[in-house]
Design brief:
The complex is a heterodimer. Chain A is of the alpha/beta class. In chain A, 40% of the residues lie in helices and 19% in strands. In chain A, helix 2 packs across helix 9, helix 2 packs parallel to helix 10 and helix 5 packs across helix 6. Chain B is mostly helical. In chain B, strand 2 and strand 3 form a beta hairpin. In chain B, helix 3 crosses helix 8, helix 5 packs across helix 6 and helix 10 runs antiparallel to helix 11. The longest helix of chain B is centred in the N-terminal third of the chain and has 31 residues. Classes of the chains: A alpha/beta, B mainly alpha. At the A-B interface, helix 1, helix 2, strand 8, helix 7 and helix 8 of A face helix 1, helix 4, helix 8, helix 9 and helix 10 of B.
């Protein structure tokens, strides 16, 4: 099967390079992206025009999350265009959560002079891959889901994120587990992706310091059979931590627990926030994004997303926030009478100071691109499958 | 000891699933010497068919027909539609390339695999579709022996899997059609000269192999609950490995290979660590291949000089 991949790469490589990004208009206008530089004339009455790249896993194993992100990016551009009288176009790039694919998409975006900033990519491993090229191109890029600590040490000066990092979420979740759920034995299972292993690395020291006996396991994100692993959950194991991105996998894990009469409860993160898919009663889910359906000021956005795209989780709203930051930066550049460019949009993003946002918190960035005072949200799943916010 | 038996049950159940998919892979290789890399995607199509049958009859929580009838429809429809899809693949994609260099149908198979994945993504969307098996087959409806649990779905997968494998073995060894299949596998040109309708035999082989993948897809959906456009990749990978380890082209070999992989995964996960499952299982398989390059039950090809 490895041969399948090699052959496939050879067969479709040129097509992938040529065609992995496509443009879409968010305002019903032409979807084409001009090769000319972005133009404006906010002060002179001309339309404020620019293109924004979107990088996300639109296909592949986490396509449900990537598609949700794309939908919210489109929604943000659409709403911001209407509010700011801008003509911003979103250019899609499918990264499949693969660093190599993200690099290819980034190269295309960098060579497209009309693109002044990028939303995404989704995964920390992808940010690691594209951080250098983005920096060399002077292109600002804002992720709505990359949480690895190493991304904001200053090595990627054009990178920003609207979610908190693992060093906040990991210990926060681990402390909640230790102090509230009081496990003596615990199983933690990573899904062999950078996102998951990063969180595990941040959590395990807290468990060990608290004297909790930890069984660290690891399964591929593509695996769907957990019966053998669940058999290892001992009667003394009261919590299984699943920092995963695929909610359907966690649902199956929960089903296997029930099938083998295991009483351990599941504590998941981010990707498991999926009310239609992950419904194991008594489970906990910590998320970098809030449930915007429960935030009154987000009612119009939630309603628009619901009617246009159907149900959604917590991966979309942060991307809406990221896109909105870029849209506002472009609009501010135009209002200042300048033509949007990578450099002036980057400068405007650095100055971002939103007193409120779709995430229910202010948005501003520190000198390394991290969200100032970012926080996480913890939910418990009720017997009816509803996600109930646990007050922090 | 109960832990051992629980892992044994888990491994045999998963292995039976791998075996079913591997059988089709091995059958097609047997008659055409073609590595049909699109075979795993037929498993995916079967799983989708099972899901949509559940939806057609009211959804998992509100079924409008009895569960046994639902299961019968799921399996029959998946076998028929996926079998037909396999026949169409053979007729329109592989048959025109039958006399082409072997790399050509191989590339075509990869192309079909990507085509099916992308078609499923476009038709059914990116979201995971969930069977919710527990809504209509209770988790507590199986057998409990001490602390070892075998639920009804596992029992059904085992019984049906064994029955299908036994039936296929009978068909190949005891019927005229089976004899023709073996003749085509041994020497296609000689079989044709003896009056065997080779095209018909190949078509039937594709139908049977694909139908088994479709049935396995429904079984996988019932066992693992989820369907998405990419699930065929892992299924195909495991089936290919099982077929090669058992001896590609050998039907008993495919069964044995599937069971071995299922059991090895289960016991490595249970007794060592899930972290090392792929490393150790595939390491073991490399050792098997080094000792028996033609697979456990495969026959070494004679070189004519």
């Amino acid at each position: 099967m490895k041969g399948r991949l090699v052959l496939a790469a050879a067969a479709v490589g040129s097509l992938a390079v040529a065609g992995c990004a496509s443009s879409s208009s968010s305002n019903g206008a032409s979807g084409s992206t001009s090769s000319a530089s972005a133009s404006s004339g906010g002060g002179s009455g001309k339309t404020c025009t620019a293109s924004v790249g979107f990088e996300g896993p639109i296909t592949g194993p986490v396509a449900p999350l990537g598609t949700e992100q794309l939908h919210f990016a489109e929604l943000a551009v659409s709403m911001d265009n209407a509010a700011n009288k801008t003509k911003i176009t979103l250019v899609q790039g499918d990264t499949q959560l693969q660093p190599a694919q993200a690099t290819t998409v980034t190269q295309q975006f960098v060579s497209n002079s009309s693109i002044v900033a990028v939303v995404g990519p989704a995964g920390s491993q992808e940010v690691e891959a594209v951080g250098g090229p983005m920096a060399r191109a002077g292109m600002a890029f804002i992720s709505g889901s990359a949480t690895a600590v190493a991304l904001t040490t200053g090595k990627y000066p054009t990178f920003f994120r609207v979610v908190s990092k693992d060093s906040v979420q990991g210990p926060q979740d681990a402390n909640y587990i230790v102090n509230t759920l009081h496990p003596k034995n615990l199983m933690i299972v990573d899904d062999q992706e950078a996102y998951s292993t990063g969180l595990v690395s941040a959590m395990v020291p807290v468990f060990q310091a608290a004297g909790v006996k930890v069984d660290h396991e690891s399964v591929s994100q593509k695996v769907t059979d957990f019966s053998a692993l669940v058999a290892k959950v001992t009667p003394a194991t009261s919590v299984v931590v699943l920092p995963w991105q695929v909610a359907a996998n966690a649902q199956q894990f929960g089903r296997d627990l029930a099938q083998q009469h295991k009483k351990a409860l599941i504590f998941g993160t981010d990707g498991l926030f999926s009310p239609g898919t992950f419904t194991i009663a008594g489970s906990y889910v910590s998320s970098f994004g809030p449930d915007i359906t429960a935030i009154p000021t987000d009612a119009s956005i939630a309603a628009a997303a619901q009617s246009k795209y159907g149900s959604f989780g917590t991966f979309g709203p942060p991307v809406f926030a990221a896109t909105h930051v870029i849209d506002e930066a472009i609009a501010s550049v135009c209002k200042a009478g300048q033509t949007p460019s990578r450099s002036n949009v980057l400068a405007a993003i650095k100055q971002t100071s939103e007193s409120t946002s779709i995430l229910g918190q202010p948005i501003s960035f520190d000198s390394h691109g991290d969200l100032t005072n970012g926080k996480f949200f913890l939910f418990k799943i009720s017997t009816s499958g509803k996600y109930q916010l646990i007050p922090s | 000891m109960s832990f051992f038996f629980q892992e044994l049950v888990n491994g045999v159940t998963t292995g039976a699933l791998y075996s079913l998919v591997a059988l089709g892979f091995s059958m097609v290789y047997g008659v055409l010497k073609l590595l049909n890399f699109a075979h795993g995607d037929l498993y995916m199509v079967g799983a989708y068919i099972g899901f949509f049958v559940i939806q057609w009859f009211g959804g998992a929580a509100h079924l409008t027909i009895p569960v046994p009838l639902l299961l019968l429809i799921m399996f029959v429809l998946a076998a028929g539609v996926v079998g037909g899809l396999g026949v169409a693949m053979e007729r329109f994609a592989y048959r025109p390339l039958r006399d082409a260099p072997r790399i050509a149908p191989l590339i075509t198979a990869i192309g079909i695999s990507f085509f099916l994945e992308s078609a499923a993504l476009l038709l059914f969307g990116a979201q995971y579709r969930v069977y919710n098996t527990a809504e209509f087959i209770s988790l507590s409806s199986g057998i409990q022996i001490g602390s070892v649990t075998i639920d009804s779905v596992q029992i059904m997968v085992l019984v049906l899997g064994i029955a299908l494998m036994a039936g296929l073995r009978l068909l190949v060894n005891r019927t005229k059609l089976g004899k023709q299949m073996r003749a085509v596998a041994a020497d296609r040109e000689a079989a044709e000269m003896l009056g065997i309708n080779v095209n018909f035999v190949i078509t039937v082989t594709f139908f049977l192999g694909s139908a088994l993948a479709g049935v396995a897809g429904v079984m996988g959906g019932l066992l693992f609950n989820q369907v998405t456009s990419t699930i065929g990749f892992i299924a195909g990978l495991k089936a290919f490995t099982a077929a090669v380890v058992g001896g590609i082209g050998s039907i008993p070999g495919a069964m044995l290979g599937g069971l071995l992989i299922g059991l090895a995964e289960s016991f490595v996960t249970g007794y060592i660590s899930s972290t090392y499952t792929n490393l150790l299982v595939f390491g073991l398989l490399i050792v098997v291949m080094l000792v028996r390059p033609s697979g456990l039950l495969g026959q070494a090809q004679l070189q004519k000089v």
